[in-house]
Amino acid sequence: MTNNTRIWQFISDGTRFKLVETGNSRTMDEGSQHLSGGVYTTLRTFEHERALRLEDHFDRLEHSAELQGKHVVIPRYSLRSGLCEVLDYFPESDVRLRIHCAFVENGEIRVYILAEKFTPYPESLYENGVAVKSIDYQRENPIAKATNFIDQTSELRKTKPASIHEYILVAKDGTLLEGMTSNIFIVKEGKIWTAEKGVLPGITRQIVLEVIAAAGFETILSGYPRNEVNFAEEAFITSASRGVLPVTKFDNQNVGEGIPGMITRQIRSDYLLWLKKELRPI
């Protein structure tokens, strides 16, 4: 397999910076696994050099580090400049970016930028929906976006059948938490359910919640019971790389009529319109 992900160490004194390319890896997750553990955030660009809520990503890095007992202050201005320099290595495409703050044994915190060409999901997935499978699994510290989750779920990711787009984590009480790399929303009787506790507070999830509120739908911030998914009318997952992606099969059973529903299609359409207004240069 081709090494698609390039890795740079970002070195800064707060105003000046330099990038030192340290290697590459087949995937972004493998790149993170080769670095010291820590916290990370992942995003994609639009129109090559525009992004969504980059400040929120910086905030999440600092907060995730705090939850791990580490004090991290992101040099935001210089890191933005470093990200722009990385984009120059991918002149004709959008880019998937990861900022990885590695906790080194001597107490040092090193910042790395991982980058690869971003390939959008095919439109056919949005037209037909995807299949997901539930698994009894929970994050140790769901609020923190820590790299140990990548290590802990590595084998699950490698052995996931090609027919399954995403695994959905299920809480001990049997309610749906989130996808392994996404958040999940369930639509029943015009109301939209999504877990609030026990999940990583995804940045795309927050945007979608704002879109849902603006569209006038009621949101229930609670995990939907797995044993009642057969009564749901629609479902979708959200993430930075997917946006709003319909789910039409859950544990090998159709969700609703087995096609993307009207509410899901409206939320995705509204989300895409929201993007056009909210994108900002890195």
What can you tell me about this protein's structure?
The structure is a single chain. With 282 residues, the chain is of the alpha+beta class. The protein folds into 2 domains: 113 residues, D-amino Acid Aminotransferase, Chain A, domain 1 (2-Layer Sandwich); 158 residues, D-amino Acid Aminotransferase, subunit A, domain 2 (D-amino Acid Aminotransferase, Chain A, domain 2, Alpha-Beta Barrel). It is 28% helix and 32% strand. It has 8 helices and 16 strands. Strands 7, 8, 9, 10, 11, 12, 13, 14 and 15 form a 9-stranded mixed sheet that branches. The protein has a 5-stranded antiparallel sheet with strand order 2-1-6-5-3. A two-stranded antiparallel sheet has the order 4-16. The longest helix has 17 residues. The radius of gyration is 19 Å and the shape is globular.
